[in-house]
Amino acid sequence: MKKKLFYLFLVFCAIFVSINIFLIEKADSKIQRISYIDEWSQAKQKDLKKTIEKQGVVGSSEEHSVYFHEENGIFQKFLVGEGDTVEEGTPLFEYKAENIEEQKVALQAEIDQIEDEINSLEDYISNLEKMKSSVKPTPSLIIDKDTDKEKQSYNTLGIEYSIDQNIYNSELEISRLESRQSNLEEQLSSLSSLSETVTVKSEISGIVKDISKDLGNPIVTISSDTPIVNSNLTEKETTQVKEGLNAKVFTDVQDKSIQGEVLKISPLPEKEVNLDEESLYPIQIKLNDAKQNLMNGYHVSVSIITEEVKDVLALPIEYISKSGDKPYVWVINSSGEIEKRELSLGIKANGQHEIKKGLKLGDTIIEKPYQVSESGSRFITPLDPDVVNKKNMNKVDKPIVLENLLLGILE
């Protein structure tokens, strides 16, 4: 009897296995279209920043050299010492004037030349402002979603930014010329009052870096008190970094980052070109807040933001697969089926990829693409004990429970 039951059991197992093999191998078998998915998430909006990381050193934004010409008179004395902090207008040194009339003519000529330069720069700024108003994009151009018009709007904004940068640089140059003009007018006033002693004053705020005790020129060198970060770029990086790009500066002496922007990129390499070495090009980062407790020589880290987008759909790179050159993701649609979505991608930054087309906010994305068997399939997922309880089970239709139970046993 036991032997008969044993043989019946073997026959039952053989039939069971045969049925499952048949169901697996047939073309429309449901088991072919079931994937095991254990992790998914919703498509969300994020801010992405594409950056280039560099190391830099804090220095002065400029060095101002002051000269003394012996033909102007006899040097008297220095009024500052090396390391002294000076402001614009601080007396630097005195000399006893000779050939006063000749000096007055020379000073007046230089003042007039500076006045002409200032007028030219003001006319230049006026022309730039007129140009900016003529290229300003219209509201309809900005909101139009047509691809060509989006590019046109982007290029127009780039022209506006370039104009703003030229205006800013011209205004800085006017400020420097006005300071120089004021200093020369004071010297001329001293000579005009028949005073033999002329006082030369600083044109910038900063620190006295060097004093020439032997009266060789420059007789005084002043480092500006506006800090600047000096770094360099590789040949490839010069194609990605442009003047005016935003940057962040990090130091060991401050907990927070300092906002800045790329001020200048040298068109010449920092040292003589060598066929066996890559050329490096000096770059300067201006700090937006000049009132920072950064001393010359501090070593810092710099993050230059080459591209930035805000509030865009983005996914981790590992969620995205490729079929040839076409990227795609697996999505769980509203019917509970797995769907293949082709994507149009934007920038890639910090392990994330911008999604321009193919998804909408809240779409359910399968995080492990290798778990998907094919498009259009349904899926199974690990049982969550917290969800499977008597209360929730009572909500499920009994026929559906039976159907799925049999489907699980047979397939």
From TrEMBL:
Location relative to the cell: Cell envelope
InterPro entries assigned to the protein according to its UniProt record, in alphabetical order: Beta-barrel_YknX (IPR058636), BSH_YknX-like (IPR058639), MdtA-like_C (IPR058627), UPF0194_transport (IPR050465)
Residue ranges crossing the lipid bilayer per the database entry: 6-24
Keyword Membrane part of the UniProt annotation: yes
Keywords, in A-Z order: Coiled coil, Membrane, Transmembrane, Transmembrane helix
Domain annotation YknX-like beta-barrel: ranges: 228-304
Domain of life: Bacteria
Coiled-coil residue spans: 97-131, 167-194
Multidrug resistance protein MdtA-like C-terminal permuted SH3 domain location: 323-366
Transmembrane in keyword set: yes
Name of the molecule in the record: HlyD family secretion protein
